[in-house]
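Narrative of accomplishments. A recurring question from our advisory board has been how the design workflow behaves on a single, concrete structure rather than in aggregate. To address it, we present the structure tokens for one chain from the evaluation set, followed by the sequence designed for it. No filtering or post-editing was applied between the two.
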């Protein structure tokens, strides 16, 4: 996993402040909410010096697999096409005319398989982070403030009133410094995540419910992790 870095503030910051018990409870269940939902529609914006990449698709948080369309901007269009990924493997299907959304059933052929890179690739780091935003159990709410989680402020995001919080220091999870920033609704639903990765100069932004969720079907030869 690429190193998490400290990131910029939200659009309406007023913190950081120590989490209240209610706020800690929201943060504790936010990844569990994704797992409970089964899957979420996502848009992952990956900055880089060549222009950036955007992945639009769905993540199955129970099957631990993501699928969608990847498009580049600026000079970074060489990765355009379909993409599917697990915690260890990336499947890419290059396309000259990439559709706005991925077909519900992945093509039977034309896929190239490679290992997911743990370091040095902003895209792969972003895919891995997005896949880890679901958990089959809530976190310990009492430990979150002790490990550095904090409340930053409130905002409205796509019509939702959200609390902005930073998670625990990433050192407590992956051995690297920094924090992830979450935009969380009143029921614990995750609507946005911003996180820095070592291979990108600006934060990766992951937005949820940006389009309709489409169940993820493995490409031929892809075995979801269980």
């Amino acid at each position: 996993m690429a190193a998490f870095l400290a990131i910029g503030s939200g659009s309406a910051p007023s913190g950081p402040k120590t989490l209240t018990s209610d706020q800690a409870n929201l943060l504790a269940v936010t990844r569990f909410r994704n797992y409970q939902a089964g899957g979420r529609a996502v848009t992952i914006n990956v900055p880089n010096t060549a222009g950036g990449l955007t992945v639009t698709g769905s993540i199955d948080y129970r099957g631990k697999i993501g699928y969608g369309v990847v498009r580049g901007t600026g000079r970074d269009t060489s990765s355009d096409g379909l993409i599917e990924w697990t915690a260890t493997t990336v499947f890419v299907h290059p396309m000259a005319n990439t559709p706005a959304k991925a077909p519900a059933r992945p093509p039977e052929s034309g896929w190239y398989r490679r290992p997911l890179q743990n370091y040095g690739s902003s895209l792969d780091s972003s895919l891995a982070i997005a896949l880890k935003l679901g958990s089959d159990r809530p976190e310990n709410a009492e430990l979150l403030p002790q490990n550095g989680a904090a409340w930053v402020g409130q905002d409205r995001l796509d019509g939702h009133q959200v609390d902005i919080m930073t998670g625990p220091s990433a050192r407590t999870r992956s051995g690297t410094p920094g924090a992830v920033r979450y935009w969380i609704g009143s029921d614990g639903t995750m609507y946005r995540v911003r996180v820095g990765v070592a291979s990108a100069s600006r934060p990766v932004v992951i937005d949820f419910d940006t389009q309709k969720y489409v169940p993820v079907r493995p490409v031929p030869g892809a075995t979801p992790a269980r």
